[in-house]
Fold:
Amino acid sequence: MIMQSLAGAWEFRQVKSEEWLPASVPGGVHTDLLALGRIPDPFLGDNEKRVQWVAESDWTYRRVFTCPMDLIARDKIFLVCDGLDTLATVILNGQELGSTNNMFRHYEWEVGTLLNSSSDNELIVKITSPVKYTAEKHAIRPLAGVTQAIPGSPHLRKAPCQFGWDWGPQLPPIGIWKDIRLESFSTARLSNVHLQQQHDSGNVTVAARLDFERWEEKSLSAVVKIKTPDDKVLETESPVPWHSLMSGP
Structure:
């Protein structure tokens, strides 16, 4: 696997604004605006009320990047988003990849055919206001929540305390709050690893279930190494059955 991180310096702006501002990813609109001196510290005095407009607005994040040739040359390339907060639409080089509605989920899209190898690539993440969304849903079907919170938060898969709590302010974050990157593979990749232990009279048996995706008909084997408490390394290797690899095109 070859990975290219897309974290770091981005740009962002409020929808309908023409001014792009510097942003940090992972991060959020509130922290970026605070770093730029565009909003007061929301945890001081009654500043919480002065920044309510942030979560009531729609925002756009943008990153322009180039791809190394060794990444582009791989069979499959995926854009991987570990955390988008929350109602986001992801666009790469003018092509909409998809939309998200859950800040806790991991999202990924295959993007190999969309990437430019000889010029810049533009990644855009458009994020809709969670407050407007939950207000519209709550007007149709009211759902009880915390009395100190912005109404409607149960309609969205987003941390409830962000909408307000007895100990917390009403400041729902908006942004890319976890890592975002490109991952490229040739031949196959591990899609899931599940380990189980069985203990019997001091003996331990470890079973490993490995799920694969495969794009070439090549013989593959899986190697599992276990380091014991006394620093011994136990190793086993098994061929991977063809039928276990037949997910993916």
Residues 134 and 152 are 5 Å apart (CA to CA).
